[in-house]
Specification:
By secondary structure, the protein is of the alpha+beta class. The chain is about 55% helix and about 15% strand. The chain has helices at about 1-20, 20-35, 35-50, 60-70, 70-75, 90-100, 105-125, 125-130, 135-140, 150-170, 195-210, 215-250, 250-255, 260-275, 300-330, 385-395, 445-455, 480-495, 500-505, and strands at about 175, 180, 185, 345-350, 355, 360-365, 370-375, 405-410, 415-425, 430-435, 440, 465-470.
């Protein structure tokens, strides 16, 4: 009964503290959810589809619990709305507009967290916001960021494994993400890169540091350990799987349950991190329960609504600027038409279609269906639209955690390097190329900047995407059937010589 009475008193105090800000904060959060539903939907979609970010579903409950854990710090305060703080929305607003122009969804989502912080600061006031800073900062883990390090993590894991095998004395050959030993081959897929362990470790490290330490230095050091340890541990896990394959004489058998091995190994790593951090804890200092009376004040619901409205009005500037830029851009797409050069064993099939800006051609090669998609965009088109379409058509970053990435080095084609995404789960091989400013390129920062420059300043040339998607007539039953599909797609791409001139012609570039 005493515990229930104490909890009831705590809830009453919290209601008093937050009373001036609740209406403005609720209205502001509703407005943000409507304005930025694309960012929220994209984030939740990643949480649901990728095991690397499934822990994000727990971030909001953890942040709420962190705020409740700090209730003693806010009992002597009261929300004092500060409409002037709405001006700070210009900072995440500029970041959101830049990320939106560059087509970086993670940047837009991080900017949205910044908008939420500004809304809380404006409706709660600086003192209360500072008292709850830790749970507000923890909201960063709602953003599924870090995917850009998957490639470097794959490279590190492959090289780490190769060095370990050399030390142990097991013959090996490491080529990009492929590790070969006499007993078979191991591919360091995205699921093996350790991103899921790294992100989860960082989220755990931040929570552990906030709970166990009062010193910001200790928190930073533990977070650094949470960054380094899972990377090295994942390398050791991959090395262990390859060594196991060597001793049992089968690479496939050793790697069958590598994801399960990973989570067991990761649980052990987290336990080790906890044991290392425990001796340095300083959370045992009791917090005083004797509290001063809540501060009085005249701030009321109207002030909270004014502050929330001012924050939303300032936040609106970024989406309005984005809309005006899109309206100004040329909306007439060039005709997309590409005459395919078919290899022996290939023939056109029913199902082809064409309209301004989009051509889909169906081809059957060696008994396998290949869809060739050509998508063109007008000069000054939204970079986000161009890059999102390229990602969707070429499967860049969307081939599944177990997808294999195979670079092709071809002669007499431009670009000379294509990247096959072999997705065993979806049973397909897919690749694509992007032309921006009259030259083949990839979805890197330089491309994003070129598209954003044309969108912001006007001018520029049309952008073109060419994508090939192969679906086998029947599911692959063994590695040889998979290789057969890869060779069929590679042969068709290799037959398309002088891509640059032909793309220039269909896009209407000068001199095409």
């Amino acid at each position: 009964m005493a515990v229930q009475r104490t909890r009831a008193v705590d809830l009453a105090r919290i209601r008093y503290v937050l009373a001036p800000s609740v209406a403005g904060m609720a209205a502001g959060l509703l407005a943000l959810s409507l304005l930025f539903h694309a960012e929220i939907t994209a984030a939740v979609g990643v949480w649901d589809s990728s095991t690397a970010y499934s822990h994000c579903f727990f971030v909001l409950p953890i942040a709420a619990w962190l705020a409740w854990d700090r209730r003693d710090r806010v009992f002597a305060l009261r929300a004092r709305p500060a409409p002037w703080a709405a001006l700070l929305a210009l900072i995440p607003g500029a970041a959101w507009l830049l990320a939106e122009r560059l087509g970086i969804m993670e940047g837009r989502q991080l900017a949205l967290i910044g908008f939420v912080w500004v809304l809380f600061l404006a409706t709660l006031g600086p003192a209360l916001f500072r008292a709850l800073l830790a749970p507000f900062l923890y909201l960063i883990f709602l953003v599924p960021f870090g995917g850009f390090v998957t490639g470097p993590l794959q490279t590190f894991t492959a090289r780490f494994t190769g060095i370990g095998l050399d030390i142990i004395g097991i013959p090996n050959d490491v080529n990009a993400f492929l590790i070969r030993i006499p007993e078979g081959a191991f591919y360091v897929a995205q699921a093996c890169a350790g991103l899921r362990f790294l992100i989860a470790s960082l989220a755990f490290g931040a929570l552990y540091g906030l709970l166990m330490y009062h010193s910001n230095l200790k928190r930073a050091l533990f977070l650094l350990m949470s960054l380094v340890v899972p990377i090295v541990a994942n390398g050791l896990r991959a090395l262990g799987i390859v060594v196991l394959g060597h001793y049992i004489g089968s690479a496939q058998a050793a790697a069958t349950d590598h994801v399960l091995y990973g989570w067991i190994f990761f649980s052990i790593v987290i336990l080790i991190e906890i044991m290392i951090g425990l001796p340095f804890r300083d959370d045992l200092v009791p917090r005083p329960r004797t509290l001063p009376a809540p501060a009085s004040g005249r701030a009321g619901t109207i002030q909270g609504l004014v502050a929330g409205g001012a924050a939303v009005a300032a936040i609106l500037l970024a989406p309005i600027a984005s809309h005006l830029l899109d309206v100004r851009a040329n909306t007439t797409a060039p005709v997309a038409a590409l005459h395919l050069r078919l290899t022996p064993g290939c023939a056109t099939a029913a199902g082809s279609s064409a309209k301004p800006g989009l051509t889909v051609q169906q081809v059957v090669c060696d008994g396998q269906d290949i869809r060739v998609t050509v998508r063109s965009f007008p000069a000054g088109a939204s970079p986000a639209m161009v890059l999102h379409t390229f990602t969707a058509l070429s499967d860049t970053g969307n081939g599944g955690d177990e997808a294999q990435i195979i670079p092709l080095h071809l002669k007499n084609t431009t670009p000379q390097q294509w990247t096959l995404v072999v997705d065993n789960q979806a049973q397909r091989v897919i690749t694509g190329a992007l032309w921006v400013s009259n030259r083949p390129t990839g979805p890197g920062l330089r491309t994003r900047l070129a598209l954003a420059r044309a969108n912001l300043l006007g001018g520029g040339t049309p952008s073109v995407i060419v994508a090939f998607t192969l679906k086998p007539k029947r599911p692959w039953r063994n590695e040889e059937e998979t290789k057969r599909s890869e060779r069929a797609l590679e042969a068709l791409i290799a037959a398309q010589q002088h891509f640059d001139k032909r793309i220039a012609g269909l896009a209407g570039w000068a001199g095409g």
